[in-house]
Amino acid sequence: MTHFIVHMEGSGKWPSEPMAIRHVKAAFHICLRELLCNQHNYRCHATPGYLDVWKDGLVFRIQVAYHREPQILRESLTPEGMLIYRDNAEAQALELETLHKPFLTSTLHGLQQQYGCFGVVCRLAKRWLASQFLLEDIREEAADLLVASLFLHPAPFTPPSSPQVGFLRFLHLLSTFDWKNNPLIVNLNGKLTAVEQTDIKNDFVASRESLPTMFIVTPNDKKVSVWTKEAPSVQMLQRAVMLAAESLRVLETRLDSGEKQDMRVAFRPPLEAYDVLIHLDSKQVPLLAKAVDPPVNTFQRGTHGGQPYASGGALPVIDYDPVRLYLSELRDAFGDLALFFYDPYGGTVIAVLWKPNAFEPKPFKTSLMNARRVKVNDDVATTVPNVEAILQDFRIIGEGLVKRLELRTEKWVV
């Protein structure tokens, strides 16, 4: 699926209420759908938030954007009628999707035009992060910036000239950079002067305690690090550093020994550290062909009759991903007890890790009995996780998707 952001021109005719703006954008999506269907016979599906267009076997998701909407979402009135501005998660998310991401995409496109292997290195880096269950903590945009720094600031080397070299340098950067004491400055288009970079480093040192664990600076993002503001946490960054160092060691050892090069060895995640492994039915994994070790036989749900990409007719199922929905339900139900990890590109295992304080007894409260059972010691009632019921819920929620559970009982005690 390819995403497009259509920025509408500013005009005094735009409403000043968030809900009214959403209605106007929904109307644009409906009108655009009618034009594409009637004049070009494309298969389209309009929703309030976007428009999906099916053309030549590809899906294009079009989203209308109004540049003042994030600012309007931050506006609120006090009881006295005074207009104030207050930041919120909705405004930040919309700003990322409609302003920051398109700008970053166009800038990185320029890098791809300059360095032919830049895009391949980015894909390798993000595929490695996904295979190691890290892509939800280190966003794709952050990975792109890490790779961009290898080409913009390659000293003491020259910019990578092959995907393999670029990937090895990505692992080296991730595993050796001093994230605690330094910001990673990515000087896109050379807009940051030496004086500005010095000021950025000084501000970073002065405000380190309040800044994200991984802090990436660009000319348009000097103080916030928008792509790493929410994640990774200290623990997940430490794990990423450790995995990158080990993957780099394995690959370098194979290269030095002259063995047959199989880079997939660095993309296979270590599963020994997890407490429960939820094995999935491969027939229900939508991107099975993109797995690190794809099966010999893959599955297709349905066949195309006649010309597969003919215009007109019903729109095919788009964005089918039952594993993502299953993960969302697991995190909503048990996110206070466990962490859930998954490779979105054809992974057939969901790894579960109990949180460090998950099994600590808690005072008995009728309102806090979800997934817990009562335990009485010395006439004092406390609650502990009901592991048997939780595991049963894993199976029930994932009925038709879950194949089996593998329990690492030596890793935890109830």
UniProtKB/TrEMBL annotation:
Its main location: nucleus. Residues 4-113, 115-269, 271-404 form the Nrap protein domain. It is found in: Nucleus, Nucleolus. One of its GO terms (cellular component) is CURI complex. GO terms for biological process: rRNA processing; tRNA export from nucleus. One of its GO terms (molecular function) is RNA binding. Keywords: Nucleus, RNA-binding. Belongs to the NRAP family. This is Nucleolar protein 6. It comes from Cyprinus carpio (Common carp). The lineage of its organism: Eukaryota, Metazoa, Chordata, Craniata, Vertebrata.
